[in-house]
Amino acid sequence: MAVNAVRIAWAALAAAVLLAGGGAQDIPLPEHPRPDFERPAWVNLNGRWQFRFDPGDEGLTQKWQDGAAAFPLAITVPFPWGSALSGVPDRAPIGWYARTVEVPAGWKGQRIFLVVGAADWHTTAWLDGQKLGEHQGGYTPFEFELTPHARPGTPQRLTLRVDYKDRAFKLEGKQGYGNARGLWQTPYLEARGTTALAAVHFTPDLAAKKVTVQADLLEAAPQDLNLRLAFRTGGLAAVEQRVPRGQAGVRFEVAIPEPRRWSLEDPFLYEVEAQLAGGAPPPDVVRTYFGMRTISVVNLPGTDHRYVALNGEPVYLQLTLDQAYHPDGFYTFPTDAFVRDEVLRARQIGLNGLREHVKVESPRKLYWADRLGVLIMADVPNSWGEPTPEMRKEIEGTLRGMIRRDYNHPAVFAWVPFNETWGLFSNVPKPGQEKPDRVYRPETQAWVASVYRLAKSLDGTRLVEDNSVCCGRGHTETDINSWHDYLPGWAWDEQLDKVSTGTRPGSTWNFEEGYKQDRQPNINSEFGNVWGYEGSTGDVDWSWDYHRAVNAFRRHPRVAGWLYTEHHDVINEWNGYWRFDRTEKFTGMEDLVEGMTLQDLHAPLYVAVGTPADLSRSVKVGETVEVPLWASFLTGSTAWGSELVLQARLYGWNTLGRKRTTFTTSRTVAYRPWMSEALAPLAVPMPQEPGVAVLAVELTDRAGSVLHRNFATFVVEGPRPDEVTLADGRRAHVSRIDPAGFSSARWSLKQWNVLEGLKVN
């Protein structure tokens, strides 16, 4: 009987949405916002709501919740007010929402809840003027029970007030790029069983071939209950577990004799339907999922270099900073397809992870990372004030809510409570000084270490980084020794030499006084050149520096990965792989080496070509140049056997722009997993005339399939001929002038010389 009731409930899902006042096509983001915790009977409340600003904070005293006050504006939920997609400008820090809701008649006898994915910051809710409750916080879900006030089958008025007033302790992250005012994640109605589940968490254990299940109830069991887990994927038989009367949860193990691992190559998910029954009908039913995978730290084989490991195998982290902003929706993306494509973009250029930057990202972004096999570093947003008791409460509450909500997402490999010490400085007045000193107090550092320990106590299955450090600050207690640096491309080899030398147990490099390194993996967790290139020569500046930096990282295997700033441009930061509107950027690489793309710079098999600090080298006409090579084969795969093929070709353009290939070579290269070492250099004869040249290198398997492309460039210097042979065989005399030697510039309002007079602007 219970199973049939569940099937009927799932079949009625579409009808329930229709009862809410429109089909899925009529509202934005119609998908269930929590694929990891989804009940069959729910009603999406996205779409048009009545709206009113409250600039004078008069709504409460005037009892706007009672329904008599006019709400003259219309806002599109779940987009924050002030965003273009909301349809409402940003005119005040307090906003009121109202709409008619109708609890489906078929939900009679069940418990009814309003669930809000996220609203920033202080939310109060009423149904027909009856207060449901209030919540403080801007990033994690909350809920109010409607059961005592709900009248299934009857239209009722739901009112929300959201107060976003400035508070120094409030967590905001980078909302300066667009405020997340009010509702910014999907609100929905939900029907639950009379005794309901609050959470179902799965902790995989690959070595023991089992998963531990922790099921929590909203309240203590009023009588003995039965929890049934039906595995919809994975070929496992259903299991049942008794929940004794008076208990608010139950913990048990489920054997998985032949576990299918969640990996970047095969992101398999065990889908589960949990049913809690035994009390008054109906049962409570939740669909969820988990991945069988482990996160740990191991040595890179054959070395003492510490790497983050997935399922016991090292992963060379190639991540990007995901600001997770949309030009028209700010914190909220317009469609689920757009959310999916954000994750796909990273995977398609060869990256293996995203850092969701100072934002608790929506569960559907994490869902797509789970589905598509992309790792996630999850940040807690920061405040911009001081570490007051109120701020500490906000941080710890948000961390708890984030871990509780996102525990089952296999893509998440690390929690990051703080970024760049933001919100951790205290203002300390100093006599005779107008501005106070900003001090990172030892007691604040001790609290940061306690937050690290709190996260570990809540989730011992993942890594925790205390503070993603920058700008002279350091770590306290941490699982990851990461650091930020924004440098030009030529500076990276020297910097990475210093980082590699400073990485060892007992070293105080990159740690606060009184703390020191243990055996944490060292990764870069933000790098780039500058934040923007407006007014420069454009995208090629970015890709040239990026290429030099990646070459340098691949020559330094003690650094276990990097994180580039950023996935997409946003407002005044233009370092993205994509522009703010997600259009493509031109890297210029494909014009230098046929077929080369960003994927080649992120390939597991990589050959850095040329001198460590440069992509361009000055050479003389006709000389034979020794070109260094470094093999960085950071994968455990044995698919390519023991040998690869390295092919090199030198081509270039003379002073008239004629292209010629002047040298080719091919040789075998020994291959072994996790190999990172210098190869024998290439001896390359330079062209017999001045110009510029590109040495293009391709790494292929024995069958000729290209695995990686790279290049170095040369400026070939020598006497420039006064006479040349043109393409059609004719001889021509070459005349040269000084670009800065003109005598008149009537067409120009301003003129300046660059490159020692070789170019005139």
Can you give keywords for this protein?
6-stranded parallel sheet, Jelly Rolls, 10 helices, alpha+beta, TIM Barrel, disordered N terminus, Immunoglobulin-like, 761 residues, 6-stranded antiparallel sheet, single chain, globular
Helical residue percent band: 10-25%
Q: Please identify which CATH superfamily of the largest domain we are dealing with.
A: Glycosidases
Shape label: globular
Low-confidence spans: pLDDT under 50, at least 5 residues? 1-25
Distance between the termini: 82 Å
CATH class of the largest domain, anyone? Alpha Beta
| Secondary structure category | alpha+beta
> How does CATH name the architecture of the largest domain?
Alpha-Beta Barrel
Integer-rounded radius of gyration: 30 Å
Largest sheet: 6 strands, antiparallel
Oligomer: single chain
Beta-sheet strand percentage? 35-45%
Give the CATH topology of the largest domain.
Answer: TIM Barrel
Number of discrete helical segments = 10
